[in-house]
Design brief:
Layout lengths: L8 E2 L2 E4 L3 E5 L8 E4 L2 E9 L2 E6 L12 E3 L5 E4 L7 E2 L15 E4 L16 E2 L4 H4 L4 E2 L3 E6 L5 H11 L4 E9 L1 H13 L6 E7 L10 H15 L3 E7 L1 H14 L13 H9 L3 E2 L5 E9 L8 H9 L2 E8 L4 E4 L5 E2 L14 H23 L6 H18 L7 H15 L2 H4 L3 H7 L5
Parallel strand pairs: 9-15, 13-18, 13-19, 14-15, 14-16, 16-18
Antiparallel strand pairs: 1-7, 2-3, 3-6, 4-5, 4-7, 5-6, 8-10, 11-12, 17-18, 19-20, 19-21
Helix pairs in contact: 2-3, 6-7, 8-9, 8-10, 9-10
Length: 441
């Protein structure tokens, strides 16, 4: 308290809602932190000398004469080597039983990188998941969401990404995680021996929902330290952005702001964009790539959250549970990486575009055959082969539990093609067929 003893203390709160309080104060900055009745709060609105504070843990029990003390600074994170391998809360404080962080304090939530300091995203970043690397290849500096139903195992898939991705640092921002999910992440990272390259900021369901709003800024402040300051390739994993948006809505509604589409605040687009636009490729080689989860309500992609997300990001990855093979897939038809053409066949093997396009075309033939079958029409011999191919394609390449290198994915693609089709049927350039077609046994 000695550092803040000189700060002026206010004791006259004019209005209290479930999440905010208002009072008159001077020389206060937007997003400045404060202590209200012993609880941490942040300035979210300034109109003249009328200040509105968002109280993270809620206002229940706070009287109108509670002491309000402004701290004169926005939220910050202690950044240093001792935060590597740590699990921290939304304020950047340890929750893993380890020592307090000792690094230099750095403000969070700053502006995105000036365009003159950016390069076009153009470096391959592999994930070890064929449904991504083969069909929806990612590049460093890209921003892309997973669209998933709430009952799909998206946290398990994000953990797989953390363990498999070709990145120097993985920053996890977990918002509204169940205690089981938090422990799952912790156990997965520890068992894999990968903690040294992972930093996690976690808000659980036991924590106040409004605290979720600080998690992406904490994660991205750490990411910027490694990407800009150390020229490292950083992958930021954010889950779940729908729960982040719900927290925005809580604050907006309790401030009596007029809601927009689907009860979301009118500022939803800019609130999401300020996070996603932190994705960047720096000229010196450092980068921030963002993969986020957006859960869908009843599969509704027109909801304000996925709708706005789609305008901001560079594609999307759809998760789908396939009943035939009993596995979760990266849906090849609804998923798209808009930047994949920058690297496939250039930074990946020359046959990558041909294998990707041919496998999808033949998979589409199989779906047409399935429709014929379901409607009682006879199947041709080609239809039968296409159906067998599609089953193995899903099991060996589209399922998220398949862990292969990029070249292994391409080799598996050639094997699947040769097992079910002739050289003439695949329609691939002759020089590539001659070079990569598996030898007959």
């Amino acid at each position: 308290m000695s550092k803040t003893a000189f700060k002026r203390i206010y004791t006259r709160i004019s209005q209290i809602t479930k999440a905010t309080c208002s009072l008159k104060a001077e020389n206060i900055g937007y997003e400045e932190l404060a202590i209200v009745g012993g609880r941490l709060a942040q300035v979210v609105k300034i109109v003249g000398d009328e200040i509105t504070l968002q109280i993270f843990s809620g206002t229940e029990g706070i009287p109108t004469n509670a002491e309000v003390m402004f701290l004169g600074r926005p939220p910050s994170l202690r950044i240093g080597q001792d935060m590597e391998g740590r699990f921290l809360n939304a304020y950047g404080d340890p929750i893993d039983g380890g020592p307090e962080l000792t690094g230099a304090e750095q403000e969070i939530g700053g502006p995105s990188v000036n365009p003159v300091r950016r390069e076009q995203p153009s470096q391959l970043i592999t994930t070890g998941i064929a449904g991504i690397d083969l069909n929806n290849t990612l590049v460093t500096g890209q921003k892309i969401p997973f669209f998933a139903d709430p009952d799909q195992p998206f946290n398990q898939i994000m953990a797989l990404l953390a363990l498999r991705a070709d990145a120097d640092k993985i920053i996890l921002g977990g918002m509204g995680l169940s205690n089981d999910d938090y422990l799952f992440y912790k156990k997965s990272f520890m068992n894999a021996g990968s903690l040294d390259r992972i930093i996690a900021f976690v808000n659980t369901t036991d924590d106040p929902p409004v605290e979720r709003l600080m998690v992406p800024d904490m994660a991205l402040a750490a990411a910027e330290h490694y990407a800009s300051g150390k020229n490292e390739k950083v992958l930021v994993l954010l889950t779940d952005m729908t729960l982040y948006a719900d927290a925005l809505s809580i604050v907006s509604n309790r401030m009596d702001q007029i809601p927009s589409k689907d009860s979301m605040p009118g500022s939803l687009y800019s609130d999401l964009a300020k996070i996603y636009e932190k994705a960047v490729q720096f000229p010196d080689g450092g980068s921030i790539t963002i993969i986020a989860v957006t859960t869908l309500s009843g599969g509704d992609i027109t909801h304000a959250i996925p709708d706005n997300t789609g305008y901001i990001t560079e594609g999307q990855l759809f998760l789908r549970r396939d009943t035939e093979v009993g596995k979760v897939l990266i849906d090849p038809f609804r998923s798209l990486s808009r930047l994949k053409q920058l690297v496939i066949g250039d930074q990946t093997r020359e046959d990558h575009p041909q294998i990707m396009n041919t496998a999808i075309r033949l998979y589409a033939d199989a779906l047409n055959a399935r429709t014929k079958q379901e409607n009682g029409f006879d199947l041709t011999e080609y239809d039968e082969r296409a159906l067998t191919f599609s089953t193995q394609y899903k099991e060996k390449l589209l399922a998220v539990d398949v862990n292969l290198s990029m070249n292994e994915m391409l080799d598996e693609g050639w094997k699947l093609l040769s097992d079910h089709f002739s050289r003439n049927e695949v329609g691939i350039r002759e020089d590539l067929v001659n070079k990569y077609w598996p030898a007959e046994k």
